[in-house]
Amino acid sequence: MNWYQKQKIAIKWQDIGKGFLYTTLPFAPLSDSADTKLSPNTTPIPYYSIQDPTGKSVTAPEKSIQLKENNDFIQRAKEMIIRHEGKKYVRYNDSRGILTVGVGFNLTRKDAPQVLSSLGLNYNDVINGKQLSNLQVEALFNITFDESVKSVKQLVPSFNEQPNNIKIVLINMMFNLGPSKMKEFKRFLRAIENKDYKTAAKEMVDSKWYNQVKNRSKELVDLVRQSSAFDD
Fold it and tell me: What does DSSP assign to residue 109?
């Protein structure tokens, strides 16, 4: 059995609301025939099992695999946002007085009841101080994080072409500001599109937001400046 045959894919994500569980299965078997051998540059296609609450399961190939280094920024972005936002299991008022829970989840957003319901939570219970589990907080964060990634990709067409540091900054700012306020950073966004990171950093420092979020903005500006250093 070669290296590829021995590898397994571990999918840890669990959809609490729908009860779907992704389990671990090995890669699809490979034969030693000439037409099925993998070249050193070929990536094997993993298979995963989806099990629903009735116990039925189906196995399907994952359409594509991104190299690990291309996804490193996602984990870094998540860790930084959690550090900046904090993680609270009971509702609280953030620095602007907005009712919040988990990792910066805005309880005043219009769809908050629906989002919480998808995780098996009652909105009124959460508002009245119900404590969330760590799993619920993580699931809630994943929802809002994915929303931020989707929004920033729509706002910045060149997102996928940007350095990882810039991707992290953009996701963090979108998570913090939201789409409507992020759109107001027109000169900053134009500089990002042009990959003019010196100007982008300057626009960040010159904004009101820079002084409002203090250490958070300074750390993000430093990341942009690091990207600028590679262009000198």
Answer: S
